[in-house]
Amino acid sequence: MTNILLNGIPRIGKTGIIENLKRLSKTRLNKEMKNISLGDIVAKAAHEVFRIEKERIPYLDYSFLQMTLRPGAISKARLEMRDAGGRDDLLVDTPLTMYTQVGVVPEVIFSQEQIQRLHNEGPFDFVVSLIDEPSYVIERLVDTPYPRGVDEILDWLTLEAQLGRSFAPYDYIEETRVPHYVFPVENAAANLLRLLYDIDPTVVYSMGPITHMKARDFDPGGDVSRDEWEKIEANKKQGREKLNQFRDELHDYAAVVVPLTMADASRGQKAIANTIFRDLHFFVPQSKLLIAYYPDDYHSSGVAEEMRHGLRIGKPVILIHPKGDDEVFGIRPTLKFRTKEEFFDILQNYKSLILERPELRVLRPLLDDEFNPRYARLR
Fold this sequence. Notes:
about 45% helix; globular
């Protein structure tokens, strides 16, 4: 049995992800997954005891919430975890923060001690924090009292993820904290499925020149003619398709974390700063391998810095780039391939190549005990 604590701000998309994960668990693993929602427990108690509807909870006084509803929710969840008795995989979901009527910043609505008490009942094998592109979150918050500015959402998402890491319970048997991951909402169900399947999962951070391949509208007053613009956009579209195809194939080998395109200068320095913080402090450290794929001869200063940071903290860095040099962007990666076909061919023939090419050992986490793609059976 695997137990996961899943946290994310209200309306991040937890409900849809959990429903999808339940379906995937049943069809791919032939296993049931039980879900306990702290938010639903709080809402039910608010309605039954105080006749307060779920939609009104954000308007309640923070001290009222913290002193009455939250401790009861923890006690109820502990009972439900005890009743589950380790028979099925278990996912407990909750926000750790919420805007309340008195707050200009999000309030922390559960304490680290309360999360530790849940873990002591479980215990949790993983803590996963969800994030998403701010504009998507803003769309989901339209009918709520929560703020809907990009800067506020960025700060809120970062705080929620930081608390997920800080509140990760301490495992007294292993004498370490429970592993914490930050997953984008997109592909979160598939990545969570890999955690249910594999107690020592291979998480890969998939990098690429996203900004360079981003679609742009034609500017009649610009320096580029319409014909040139159409050629540029066609090349970028082809590059995006290759990058997406690569990441789709990579899902057979790992839980793949794809960076979000939040570092857009039109959103200001805060968006860029949040993106750098997220990538360097969450995505890079949590991954077993970093893989940068360039379908063409692009340069990306952001990816180059992520590669340098990964190498500095001891992460294997795989670069797939059409240039033949061992060093691209002035960086010598752990392994270098010129095409994705070469990369996947090496993986398929790993067993016969490893004796003569011991440097390939860093790719071993992508394969199972039989040297097949680690998660191919989850397709």
